[in-house]
Amino acid sequence: MATLKTTNKHHRHLNNPFPSTPRSLPFVQGTLSFDPQTVPPHQIFSLGKDFQLTWTSKNGGSVSISHQSQPTRPIWSTIPGQAFVSAALAETEVEESRGSFVFKDRDVHLVCNHQIVEEIRVINQSDYSLEGKDHEFPSGYVGFDHKIEFKDTQFPVLLITGRIFSAKREKKKILRNTGIHDNSESVEKEPSTSARYWVFFDQKGGHQIGFQVKLGKPNLEIQQRISPRSYGVYRGFSRRLGRIRRLRIRWCGFLSRRRGFITVTSSDEENVVMKGAEFTGLNRVCLTYSSERNERFYGFGEQFSHMDFKGKRVPIFVQEQGIGRGDQPITFAANLISYRAGGDWSTTYAPSPFYMTSKMRSLYLEGYNYSIFDLTRHDRVQIQIHGDSVQGRILHGNSPSEFIEHFTEEIGRPPELPEWIISSAVVGMQGGTDFVRDIWDKLQAYDVPISAFWLQDWVGQRKTVIGSQLWWNWEVDTTRYWGWKQLIKDFSAQHIKVMTYCNPCLAPMDEKTNRSRNLFEEAKELDIFVKDKNGRPYMVPNTAFDVGMLDLTHPLTASWFKQILQEMVDDGVRGWMADFGEGLPVDAALYSGEDPVSAHNRYPELWAQINREFVEEWKSKREGKEREDPEEALVFFMRAGFRNSPKWGMLFWEGDQMVSWQVNDGIKSSVVGLLSSGLSGYAFNHSDIGGYCAVNLPFFKYRRSEELLLRWMELNAFTTVFRTHEGNKPSCNSQFYSNHKTLSHFARFAKVYKAWKFYRTQLVKEASQKGLPVCRHLFLHYPEDEHVHGLSYEQFLVGTEILVVPVLDKGKNNVKAYFPIGESCSWKHIWTGEVYTKQGSEAWIEAPIGYPAIFVKAGSTIGETFLENLRDYNIL
């Protein structure tokens, strides 16, 4: 069955500015039953060495998992009498437009929402050999044809198996609301369609339980009569997925199978016979388990609009964050001009299928399939995965920091950052050699401490219909940056690095006359571009021009691109932005042959891996003192990511915020993105000072004001990296070099940033060892404080010793600070020295421009050293 349709809408320039919520599979609910002849009424099973699984038949049956040290505190449990495994067969359409994607479920053909547990079996190591690469499951498991491997498993393993099914309805009786059909008067009699399932639980390490759900093929008969009454199980879906008078079911074989289809009506025909129907199996897995009404859910990668996701459906798919993301009027304008370009609260460059909760529960999915975490019900969670299997981990921990440590221990942690990039300001600007030297002179006059100049336009600029854009050909433009090597040498003499820009796409260079290499043609000759359905290089629309995207699964791509990076570094460059990575088309063809939908989520990890491998290979080739010289270490930063990106990426930035004060895509969203990503393993993150995206249309103007720029400087002086960006329209924006006030303020907060370098260095080291972020939501250290649970962008911690309460609203000169419950310490205001001793209290703090509300723990060595450094820099 052709269950996926892709639609490209790159060139639609007049669209609905208020797009509807995409139709999707609703919350699936069903009953749980068990076979009393094979399943005990109550039993506790050992699970690995440290965990236990409890089965009870009370109230219809349920499962719970707990650590043996806390047997009464479940880390995962199901709802009594409710199915915890269910599945469906559905058709999906993916609409794509310039890096934005939306998934729409069209027709739902089959739902197996009821579950029977037939056996709970203990698998000991003697039953299963871990030797060899691939393993067929031991004999005796009828219908199991999957290959399965238990890697790093501590035995015993537990297997729960049985059937999931949809139910016929015959006799009239009130049926409980299952959430997927009407409250019809009917009763389950016998399964009409069923499939076997297998759920495996095994201990991984000391703090995690691995789980795997596998499905067999449904036993749907080739010729089966469907009456309107038995068909009623699908009616709820039909209503929710659209106003469908006539539901057509197309049964199509994958690959070269014979095709056939029938039409089913639910109004006039009493009986319909399905003939020649073929399909390969279920393509949705739903995992449902318990939650609590007041349970808060944090994480899900870098999220920009919310910290707590209880009550929401959270899609996990890498894409452009959008322009506005619900803030008006810019979202209206973006959607009108380009299909769904505005995005919404859920769109992000770097999602992760991971969360932790206020009840000290945590879970994450492995793999790369599209998934949705449905948290809309007060008593349960449902994860809907596109595929016929699911694999993940359940974490045990007693605090949020433990969860981050256990999570990053498995997915990976970043290396320590080079000292130079966390020492002083990174000056992001454009304009060519003469302009850069002129600004450097001004910065020296204002005594601004500088770590690096980040020169995004080193490749040169081209004129397009939307203005000036970069030439995507990763070599220096010797016209714009004449004397390139001498410029780098002059900076180096003052211990200032040069950073550049690249991404995994290339543009045709036919119109660029001063190039020395044509990288697009080289990649085309090597045949390392992603392909379209016709086997040609997939030309991906990007604003005003199309580009070829490198196929990172091709064996030649990595070595070829590393050679480009080598030439860049040979010139003296020591860092770069590794941009993009979120736009792999879902209808692309890859060298690996893998599914492009799941490959889409993996692509940014591969992009980070190539850059990281180059950094490590470059370091390994250096000898003696040069190899360990911190002044010569390389670093790259990127915006796109997925679950395992912290392993490969060295540093992240939050992408393209609007130059605004707004919540979903302005300065406030940069704080939310910083903190949510920190709870998801992204230890090193930061935003562009002042934001990036300006708009200068006749009726829609977003320009960076001086006040916004100054407040963003104050905010980012307390993040991992203090880096400016001129934005997409430099002439429309206030810049750090605009006037005396902006230069003085920039110098002041570059010194504030430098004043806590000693502590930042400690936090960077801690992050590389434990995965803990530099900037932290208060929940990380005060999880018992209910007030903290409701905080979003209002304030955050730097490590444990500095409390930041930034001004994020236009025209405001004071903020409300909250001093959390949980430690017997006081907080000292750095500007006045006033000490706030009452835990759980709020206070209004004066915060005029230049004096943001910053506190240190009273009496702490870190705090006192910070204050002393501020005095040394004449800030206090």
From TrEMBL:
- Residues annotated as region Disordered? 1-21
All copies of the Glycoside hydrolase family 31 TIM barrel domain together span 432-741
- CDD domains per the record? GH31_glucosidase_YihQ, GH31_N
InterPro entries the record matches: Gal_mutarotase_sf_dom, GH, Glyco_hydro_31_C, Glyco_hydro_31_TIM, Glyco_hydro_b, Sulfoquinovosidase_GH31, YihQ_TIM-like
Keywords, A to Z? Answer: Glycosidase, Hydrolase
Signal sequence, start to end: none
Q: Which GO terms describe its biological process?
A: carbohydrate metabolic process
Q: What one GO molecular function would you report for this record?
A: carbohydrate binding
Q: Which intervals hold domain Glycosyl hydrolase family 31 C-terminal? A: 771-862
The keyword Hydrolase appears for this protein: yes
Which domain of life does the UniProt lineage start with?
A: Eukaryota
Entry's family note: Belongs to the glycosyl hydrolase 31 family.
Q: What is this protein called?
A: Alpha-glucosidase
* Species name: Davidia involucrata (Dove tree)
